[in-house]
Design brief:
Shape: globular
Number of strands: 9
Helix content: 25-40%
Oligomer: single chain
Structural class: alpha/beta
Length: about 200
């Protein structure tokens, strides 16, 4: 099958779209599919997050271990992040992320890996991120596990910023050297922005 026809097949599998809200890709649309655990971050929450980040995005290396729609990582690329690594366990979702990167002409800045995020984060870091988006499926305790693995296996730059979204009924446990900068709640979701303080 040609690359062209494969791309169109992936595009036909899309069941919706998410709009980017800022930067050079503003108003661009990401194709998304309906998939278990996929919970796109609402426009309002994304706007709040990037207001929090303000001028901290340009030049950052981004890690998105539970990529889903990829909206947060694409938004960061749109606003000047240098590159982004997206990890996605579901093959169809990962394929659509690659399709969106090609369509929006950011494939040279955006790497997609199909695999289990916790398994990868449990290995010695092959990438150090200055900005991390932790937005895993709810009700599995994944946010706490991922936060600890990021810290203990060297995935974070010294003063990395970490956005974490979790259910309000099950707050995530984060490393002691992560300082909370911001917090907001939307429905059953709690969103936090942390900054890592280098361990002494």
């Amino acid at each position: 099958m040609s690359k062209h026809s494969s791309s169109h097949r992936r595009q036909r599998s899309a069941t919706g779209r998410v709009r980017l809200i800022g930067g050079r890709l503003k108003r661009s649309q990401l194709d998304v599919i309906d998939s278990p655990g996929l919970r796109p971050t609402p426009d309002r929450v994304r706007e709040t997050l990037f207001n929090w980040l303000s001028f901290d995005v340009p030049g950052k290396r981004v890690l998105d271990p539970f990529a889903g729609t990829g909206a947060l990582a694409f938004e960061a690329i749109s606003r000047g992040a240098s590159d982004a690594w997206l990890i996605e366990q579901q093959p169809k979702v990962a394929a659509l992320l690659e399709h969106n990167a090609e369509r929006l002409k950011v494939a040279d800045q955006l790497k997609v890996t199909k695999g289990d995020a916790l398994a990868l984060l449990a290995t010695p870091a092959s990438y150090r991120a200055g900005l991390v988006f932790l937005d895993p499926p709810f009700h599995h305790g994944l946010a706490s596990s991922a936060a600890q693995l990021l810290e203990h296996h060297g995935w974070l730059e010294d003063e990395a910023l970490i956005y974490l979204e979790c259910e309000s009924s099950q707050p995530a446990q984060v490393p002691d050297n992560w300082t909370q900068l911001r917090c907001t709640q939307a429905g059953e979701s709690m969103a936090f922005l942390y900054q890592r303080q280098p361990s002494s």
